[in-house]
């Protein structure tokens, strides 16, 4: 779709093994570093794309997001990362959906305008896609962002949904973004506590583990060798192999019930402002899923509860969610928050982000 839009493809960037990580340090090719600080990771799984844009190699790069893999590296590198609504971007032709619709493709960019412009060329489901979202503005996304949104109600919280620690820099980034939105005239309402995400997270873990097991068994002709995969990948496969078809179906029912409950809660607000992650940019070598870090915690406890407890929700619910810096003058230091809107309101989210971008 990018080639059809007139883009020239430069090459392939680095990703963690099968995209199952929030850092980009695959054993096979070695780590990708944040161009802003070579001692740190650009995040993942689209860390190579974020690094390429941050380094000025390209103005934008393709990325995919199944639990935060566009937004986390964009935030770690001080860039713009939009995960579009489920069904807005084509997912084919090889698949009709990935991870029950959780995975969405788009790009990482330096500006909100670039992100909106790419959507104008790529949005729209392809024939055979399981999910289709037709919420495309009549004027297109790029022209629509020039019309400031009405004064919006913005809910915000920084407390960890599972009771863990949230890095102080990410909390500060959320507070800075809240101040910016308040200056723009939006009503920012701090929440006393985060929504209950326990059942959603558990069901999401079940779904992703089963899909991982099925996909990798097919790649390896159903005889995966332990030495062929990294520790985090093996952990997902092990978890997936112990889940029956009955339990999977039951978990998906719970997941969809939790999505309905969450969106009913969310509907009180136009936009939700949270940290993008519980952690700040990790140092190179501090992989969250190496063998020594998985001895007392499962893969999902390390990744989805410690690193991505905020970002994974929009993948489950199908909502658009966007990472952007609060200050263009210091994008890396002020980046660490995400804005999320109701499904299909990518236009609203981009318009608000453009507001922030123009005054930051």
Automatic annotation (TrEMBL):
Pfam families associated with the record: Amidase (PF01425)
Domain Amidase: 2-350
Any one GO molecular function term: catalytic activity
Region (Disordered): 25-47
Record-stated family: Belongs to the amidase family.
Name recorded for this polypeptide: Amidase
Species this chain originates from: Roseobacter ponti
Upper lineage: Bacteria, Pseudomonadati, Pseudomonadota, Alphaproteobacteria, Rhodobacterales
């Amino acid at each position: 779709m990018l080639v059809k839009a007139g883009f020239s493809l430069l090459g392939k960037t680095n990703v963690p093994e099968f995209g199952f990580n929030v850092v980009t340090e695959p054993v096979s090719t070695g780590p990708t570093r944040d161009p802003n600080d070579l001692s740190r990771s650009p995040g993942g799984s689209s860390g190579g794309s974020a690094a390429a844009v941050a380094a000025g190699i390209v103005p934008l790069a393709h990325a995919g997001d199944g639990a935060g893999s566009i937004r986390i590296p964009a935030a770690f590198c001080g860039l713009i990362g939009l995960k579009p609504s489920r069904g807005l971007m084509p997912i084919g032709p090889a698949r009709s959906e990935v991870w029950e619709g959780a995975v969405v493709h788009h790009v990482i960019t330096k500006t909100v305008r670039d992100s909106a412009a790419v959507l104008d060329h790529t949005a729209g489901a392809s024939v055979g896609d399981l999910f289709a979202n037709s919420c495309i503005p009549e004027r297109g996304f790029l022209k629509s962002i020039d019309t400031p949104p009405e004064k919006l109600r913005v809910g915000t919280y920084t407390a960890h949904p599972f009771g863990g620690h949230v890095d102080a820099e990410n909390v500060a980034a959320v507070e800075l973004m809240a101040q910016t939105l308040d200056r723009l005239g939006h009503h920012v309402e701090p929440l006393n506590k985060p929504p209950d995400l326990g059942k959603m997270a558990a069901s999401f873990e079940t779904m992703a583990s089963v899909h991982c097991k099925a996909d990798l068994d097919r790649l390896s002709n159903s005889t995966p060798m332990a030495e062929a995969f990294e520790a985090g990948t093996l952990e997902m496969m092990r978890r997936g192999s112990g889940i029956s078809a009955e339990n999977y179906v039951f978990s998906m029912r719970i997941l969809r019930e939790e999505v309905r409950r969450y969106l009913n809660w969310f509907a009180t607000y136009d936009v939700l402002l949270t940290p993008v992650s519980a952690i700040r940019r990790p140092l190179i070598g501090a992989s969250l899923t190496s063998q020594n870090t998985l001895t007392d915690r499962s893969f999902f406890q390390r990744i989805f509860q410690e690193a991505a407890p905020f970002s994974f929700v929009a993948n489950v619910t199908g909502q658009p969610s966007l990472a952007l810096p609060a200050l263009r003058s210091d994008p890396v230091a002020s980046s660490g928050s995400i804005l999320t809107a109701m499904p299909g309101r990518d236009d609203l989210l981009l318009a608000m982000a453009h507001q922030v971008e123009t005054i930051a």
